[in-house]
Write a structure and sequence with these properties.
Length: 279
């Protein structure tokens, strides 16, 4: 019988290290314990678009870590229901992220003192042909998917200090370039460019800015509107690992980028797509 790598190096198994997550040999990628980073307790975290989909998973993930989560959305019913279900340390405000004044008021009223993390998640992804796209459609999408990211960063950065972290959601569609999504893909390209330059600007203050680009994530809305059995087969063929992606798996990568574990990373894009595209 050969020895295990841990036996050969005399180092303790990972599960014996303080704070480590214990993984059984039969551990499944999809049904394991969530991470416990133990560093977000009582920290102020802001999340946009937290009432549905990936945003809800992000709100829940930070809340589970003990953070004070302030989230906004234009969907008042779902937002209030989530805040009520979570109870203490979850605060919801109904706003329209296309409106500067509403963003400024939301962030000014989000807790006291230092903001630790801002997650820009809210966006819309309409399928619309070039010939049918009006100036209003284009401007409206950019106001939601890109201008709002700039406004939240401007306001939140005023209350960020050393170790602050901004995480912006983009999309693998930027790498894929699907038809009838040119405005959406252009906004996501904008998010990537914005992230890179802002990382340089805020770096001297030790504030980090990174992007998470999800693959095709099985949110309620995606399942209802787009994910047919044949789309599922297409996704499974395209990804290196054929399992479908859950919103919670995106949220865990966002936690990582907001945590001290990623302190050497800024200006980066992380593709969370089970290997559909390679960055
Ligand atoms: N779901 C996917 O497969 C997928 C793939 C790649 C990237 N993404 C990105 O992940 C993020 C979340 O996507 P999702 O699928 O969870 O979306 P979703 O539609 O399920 O949720 C988005 C939330 O943003 C809110 N919102 C939209 N416009 C708003 C506005 N003007 N003001 C306030 N709130 C507003 C909506 O009400 C909604 O609650 C987006 O940035 C999206 O582009 C998602």
């Amino acid at each position: 019988m050969g020895s295990t790598p841990a036996e050969r190096t005399n180092s303790p198994p990972p599960s014996a290290l303080p704070g480590a997550i214990s993984l059984s040999p039969l551990h499944s990628l999809r049904h394991r314990q969530p991470v416990n980073l133990r560093e977000f307790a009582d920290r102020v975290v802001l999340v946009t678009g937290g009432a549905n989909g990936i945003g809800t998973a992000i709100v829940r993930a930070f809340h589970n870590q003990g953070a004070n989560v302030f989230f906004c959305d234009q969907d008042g019913a779902a937002g209030h229901a989530l805040a009520k279900a979570l109870g203490d340390r979850a605060s919801f405000r109904q706003i329209d992220l296309r409106k500067e004044r509403e963003i400024v008021r939301w962030i000014a009223g989000a807790g006291k003192g230092r903001i630790h993390a801002l997650v820009n998640n809210a966006a819309r992804d309409p399928r619309i042909a070039l010939s049918e796209t009006s100036i209003d459609d284009w401007d409206d999408l950019f106001a939601t998917n890109l201008r709002a990211y700039f406004l939240t960063c401007r306001e939140a950065a005023k209350r960020m200090q050393r170790d602050g972290s901004i995480v912006n959601l983009a999309s693998i569609t930027f790498h894929q370039g699907p038809a009838k999504m040119s405005a959406y893909v252009a906004t996501k390209g904008g998010v990537l460019g914005f992230t890179r330059s802002l990382a340089r600007e805020l770096g001297p203050r030790r504030i980090r800015v990174n992007t998470v680009s999800p693959g095709w994530v099985m949110t309620e809305r995606q399942l209802k509107q787009f994910v047919t059995p044949s789309v599922k087969r297409q996704i499974k063929r395209a990804q290196c690992i054929p399992d479908l992606i859950s919103p919670e798996e995106i949220a865990e990568v966002v936690l990582f980028l907001a945590s001290n574990s990623s302190r050497a990373m800024t200006g980066q894009e992380l593709l969370v797509d089970r290997g559909w595209y390679h960055s």
